[in-house]
Specification:
The protein has 128 residues and is mainly alpha-helical. The chain has a domain of 82 residues. It is built from 5 helices and no strands. Helix 3 crosses helix 4, helix 3 packs across helix 5 and helix 4 runs antiparallel to helix 5. The protein is elongated and about 85 Å long. It comes from Paraburkholderia xenovorans (strain LB400). This is DUF3175 domain-containing protein.
C-alpha cells in the first residue's frame, strides 16, 4: 500500500464575507477607507451622526456639576433619539465624554464631571 504525504494545509475553506475577501483583508480595507475620510476626531463624527440624544452645545466644557446634570436630564427626557431610558442615555453621554477626553482632561474638570455623575443619579432618584 502506498504511503501518503501529510500536508500541513487545512482542507477547510477560508471564511469569506460579501466582498469575497477574508476577514483580515476586509478589516484592512475598511481601516484604509476610514483614514482617507477622517484622520482625526472620530468621536466628533460619532457625536454628530449617531442616534444619541440631542444635547446642549459645549455643556461638558463649561458650567458646574449641577448645570451639567440638569442639562443632561432635560435633554434625555425630551429627546426622541435615545435607545435606553433617560437615565441610561444621560449617563452614557457623560461617560462617553469623560472616556474620550482621557488624559487630556484636567483634574479639576474631571472632578467636576465625576460630581456631575453623582448629581445626575440624584436627579433621577438613583442611589449613589
Amino acid at each position: 500500500m502506498p504511503t501518503r504525504k501529510s500536508t500541513t494545509r487545512s482542507k477547510r475553506p477560508v471564511a469569506r464575507g460579501k466582498s469575497g475577501r477574508p476577514p483580515r483583508q476586509r478589516h484592512a480595507q475598511a481601516q484604509a477607507a476610514h483614514r482617507a475620510k477622517s484622520p482625526k476626531k472620530w468621536s466628533h463624527h460619532v457625536m454628530e451622526t449617531s442616534d444619541a440624544m440631542d444635547i446642549q452645545h459645549d455643556i461638558f466644557k463649561t458650567g458646574s456639576a449641577e448645570s451639567i446634570a440638569h442639562s443632561l436630564k432635560q435633554s434625555s427626557t425630551k429627546s426622541r433619539r435615545r435607545k435606553g431610558t433617560p437615565f441610561q442615555s444621560a449617563m452614557s453621554m457623560l461617560n462617553f465624554y469623560i472616556n474620550r477626553a482621557g488624559r487630556n482632561l484636567p483634574k479639576a474638570r474631571r472632578d467636576t464631571l465625576q460630581q456631575a455623575k453623582r448629581k445626575l443619579r440624584e436627579a433621577f432618584g438613583r442611589a449613589p
